[in-house]
Amino acid sequence: MTLSSLPDVAQAQAPGLPRRAGLGLKSEHFQQVLATLPDIGFFEVHAENYMVAGGPLHHYLGLIREHYALSLHGVGLSIGGEGPLDHAHLARLAALVERYQPHSFSEHLAWSSHGPVFLNDLLPLAYDDATLKRVCEHIDQVQSTLKRRMLLENPSTYLLFQHSSLDETDFISEVIQRTGCGLLLDVNNVYVSCINHQQDPLAYLNALPLHSVGEIHLAGFAEDADSLGDRLLIDDHGAPVDNAVWQLYQQALQRTGPVATLIERDNDVPAFSVLHAEARQADQHLLAAAVHP
Amino acid sequence: MNRHEQFAQALLTPGLPCPDGLFSRNGADPASRFAVYRNNVHGSLINALADSYPVTQQLVGEHFFRAMAGLYIQAYPPISPLLHDYGSDLADFIKGFAPAADVPYVADVARLERLRISAYHAIDTPVANPHAVVNQLQQLSSLGNVRLQLHPCVATLRSDYAVVALWAAHQTTDPVARLDPWHGQSALVLRNGLEVEVFCIDSGCVTFINSLNNDWPLEMAMAYALDAASEFDLHQCLGLLINHRAITQIKVHP
């Protein structure tokens, strides 16, 4: 598949995520969501949380799915792993896709398992030909198993590899061109990585294959410092979206047009109304991007 | 050793140096940045265990729990991306953990918390209506060939300590009257609809439920229960199972 023949991601899979702001679905908000049915574009869940036999998680997700579009976001497939993909895990993903018919499935450009051990973090990859070949093979396998196009999320990283031979943006472009997958543009990750690696976030953004963006993620980060005392940003999903990330988001929307946008919050989860207010803020930017393309 | 092997080992083992071949654009020591990944791995896994074992953590204190969990993670890192299963054998680890030897009841509280997680996520199976169960049982002429099928969420726990009272005392913010952990209790854990419930039951009731789960007929389960505890009260135990929707089916074999 060539770049020019890639279908627009929003039309690639009917029905596609609505070009609205969405929220991560938290179990502590299940009942409030069902009772009030807030005006939210979609909900996103981590696939692994729902890989359980039964009980309240499936009960509530099933009910909420009747009212909302759904994005299924994997955090444990280890697409960049050196070994083969975990067949059992892929089968569990396929079962969830079949059960909930999500509007989107996404995973990360990262690895999290090695051998039998699962490390529970999105770990960085060296960008070379061997990794490129492996990642593309794994994405092909995911897309053929799930019978759908997936979105690949750009990572946040804290370190670089001496033997990387490709820029991250070139690596991502090549993966998308070879596999036909879409891009989950995590604007917070762009900002975090660019600050950590002394790069210009806008230049990084411009180097990404933005025509393939099927979803955007926004989140907050934590501040740390490295051995030189330089800013080291940690992608912890534990704070409101930073102003710098909102600005970068608007610049991204100028290039992509309105795209389904998730407010991610996984730690120190506030009241639903606080998250809803952030979603409304994203909706306003989406509206502006639609009016002034 | 391949790259991810070295990276993974350095992540899991705090004493190991930062892997080769890494750098920071600003020239900072890569170890100071590798530490972020190490902290993420350990911190997130310790948090996962703390989420699964809140009362266990309260009993030993946060500092003790996090230190113990850190050692557990080094010894038994997860082998599946399904973190709700992670630490299912933490109680065994605690039992053999020398610094926790003077609070031997903590391991059993951890077992109880694990049973609650299993019940919460247990497969959905239709349960019998309590009135229908009572009616059906009343109409039976003999219990000898009757089997009660329990919901897959139903589990019991025997302890030499007051495991239910210890757990219950941490479900409320009210001040608790002095609690004596040094007497045995047994627990029944089940999911009633969407709610996981915990009951203190006697030894006869434990035997009765375990016998039903082993597919013994009602009559045999009763005999085993009376054998275990002569004061076993069938009506009370059966009432508990019926009213909390733990019975899925009554099977009568001629």
From TrEMBL, chain A:
<dbReference type="InterPro" id="IPR007801">
    <property type="entry name" value="MbnB/TglH/ChrH"/>
</dbReference>
<dbReference type="InterPro" id="IPR036237">
    <property type="entry name" value="Xyl_isomerase-like_sf"/>
</dbReference>
<protein>
    <recommendedName>
        <fullName>UPF0276 protein GIW75_06305</fullName>
    </recommendedName>
</protein>
<comment type="similarity">
    <text>Belongs to the UPF0276 family.</text>
</comment>
<dbReference type="Pfam" id="PF05114">
    <property type="entry name" value="MbnB_TglH_ChrH"/>
</dbReference>
UniProtKB/TrEMBL annotation, chain B:
<dbReference type="InterPro" id="IPR044922">
    <property type="entry name" value="DUF2063_N_sf"/>
</dbReference>
<dbReference type="InterPro" id="IPR018640">
    <property type="entry name" value="DUF2063"/>
</dbReference>
<protein>
    <submittedName>
        <fullName>DUF2063 domain-containing protein</fullName>
    </submittedName>
</protein>
<dbReference type="Pfam" id="PF09836">
    <property type="entry name" value="DUF2063"/>
</dbReference>
<feature type="domain" description="Putative DNA-binding">
    <location>
        <begin position="5"/>
        <end position="94"/>
    </location>
</feature>
